[in-house]
Amino acid sequence: MENRAINNIKLGVFVSGGLLFLVVLLYMIGANRSLFGATYILKARFENVQGLVSGNNVRFSGIQAGTVKNIQILNDTVIEVVMVVDKKMQAIIRSNALVSIGTDGLVGNKVVNIVPSKVSAALAKEGAILLVKRAVSPDEMLQTLYTTNNDIAVIAANLKMTVQRINSSTAIWTLLSDPYIPKDIKLSIAKIHEATSKAASITNNLDKMIDEVKNGKGLLGKLMTNDTVANKFGNIVLKINSVGEQVDALAGEIRGLVNHFNQDVKAGKGPFNSLLRDSLLSMKLSNSLDNIQQGTEGFNQNMAAIKHSFLLRGYFKKMRKRAQKNIDK
Amino acid sequence: MVTSYSSSLKIFLREAGDIARFTRRFFSQWFRPRYEIAELLRQCFVIGYQSLPLVGLTAFILGLVLTIQLRPSMEDYGVAAQLPAIVGIAIIREIGPVIVALIFAGKIGSSIGAELGSMKVTEQIDAMEVSGTNPFKYLVVTRVLAATLMLPILVLLGDCVSLYGSWIGVNIRGNTSFYLFWTQVFNNITFSDVLPAFIKSYFFGFAVGVIGSYKGFKSNKGTEGVGRSANSAVVVSSVVIFIIDLLAVQVTDVLGLN
């Protein structure tokens, strides 16, 4: 009798264990399908649901938030997806959140992804229709991949041709095997470096000059920043302009005079003509100049004799002393 | 040759008809008083509780081996992370119920067939009738009900142990926490995975109980007949389990539960 009671207890534990596992299993599945706890409805309208079915998961930023309740065709281009979402998410999901259909992994089940928008908006209410973000379908990805593959094939063919040309070219290999080219390149680079340094230095100097001009230093700076200097400079320019005009007038007069002389010379009249063309006058002038020179030399000798005469020697000594004092001062 | 096939077909059809009649007799008697509750509980203990070690060991090895053998293929496809989900669905939906039912048929079907067969050949059943006890109600109804009620429990516990074995299998060459493993399993199974498997295990248990009892109850030709009853109980039960499984898949498919 006692043995039977123990067996019954063991049987009870056994059955309870099995049923407990069943209950846990059903509860976990139900919890994942949002069957337990409060929920609310959100909707989204798509052109194409890409194989989404009732029971697929709904995720908010990657977190399980609910499941797809049902899918209704509203018309030939609009399909409405009704989602059962955990009530706790009502304080998080906003009316401008974007809904898209994705895949769980590369080959997994379809999922509805709800992504929050960066712009703030009111919270989504019961039955709200959320905005739809068009997701890239695997077909489109494969199509793009196909185009990319074709492009890569063309690029590879061109690259192959280029490499073949390089391999068959003796000029390139000669260049590559020339031991002087690397040295020249190094030198060129060094010179480029030097030129760059100089250019940098020039740029710095220019910067300094510009700074000085901006700060009103130097003539240009003062001209640009100081009104008085600028006015004076303007007056100088005006005076130079005036002098230029006078020079122009003088040049005109000289030109007229020269023309007049030319006309006289050509006509064989006037003093210049006589000077240039009359040989007798030239000879007389030459003799006169010789006589003046002889007279001057005689005058110089007379003056030296006067300096040494006892009557005027004192006067000339005073003159020399005064001149010496002026030099010393 | 044709005569041989014809006689085999006749035997098969007669056997099927006898089993159907035996089943009808069960349904006509199981809810009528007097209820053999004590015997039912004893049979539940023997059929259910005492089968747990064998079922548990088998299920554990099943989960472990299935996981280890699936891993290379999953890795080839780059979906090794989905191993818990796939093994979980496979065990809960199909492999768990069928394998546990086959083990159950081997242990309990043969046991019922041999036990009732030996009682039949030693005329204990006739003696019970003479003493006023309804042998069908006492021996058959209790065993069939016990088998029907206990197999689903064994399947559930077998699934649990098998998934534990699978977790160990996953961790032989990986590092998946116990919590993550069960989360992945629960996230990927649905009611349509659990409920058809659970319901069909009742039919498996019923089939094993009815066929084992029928074979034992109809046993004859002495001790040789007992052995034959035990043997044929296992063979027929196993075949019927697969037939029921096939029908269950078709029904769930028609109901849109696949």
Query: Strand share of the residues of chain B?
Result: under 5%
- In the predicted model, the low-confidence regions of chain B spanning at least 5 consecutive residues are none
Distance between the termini of chain B: 43 Å
Instruction: Summarize the main sheet of chain A.
Output: 7 strands, mixed, barrel
- Secondary-structure-based class of chain A equals alpha/beta
Largest interface: A-B, 25 and 27 residues
Number of domains of chain B: 1
The general outline of chain A is elongated
Helix content of chain B: over 70%
Q: By helix and strand content of chain B, what is the structural category?
A: mainly alpha
Task: Walk me through what this model shows.
The complex is a heterodimer of chains A (329) and B (258). With 329 residues, chain A is an alpha/beta fold. Chain A has a domain of 103 residues. Helices cover 64% and strands 15% of the residues of chain A. Chain A has a 7-stranded mixed β-barrel with strand order 1-4-3-2-6-5-7. In chain A, helix 4 crosses helix 5. Chain A is elongated. The mean pLDDT of chain A is 86. Chain B is mostly helical. Chain B is elongated and about 65 Å long. Chain B has one domain. The N and C termini of chain B lie far apart (43 Å). In chain B, helix 2 runs parallel beside helix 6, helix 4 crosses helix 7 and helix 4 runs parallel beside helix 8. The interface between A and B is medium-sized, with 25 and 27 residues.
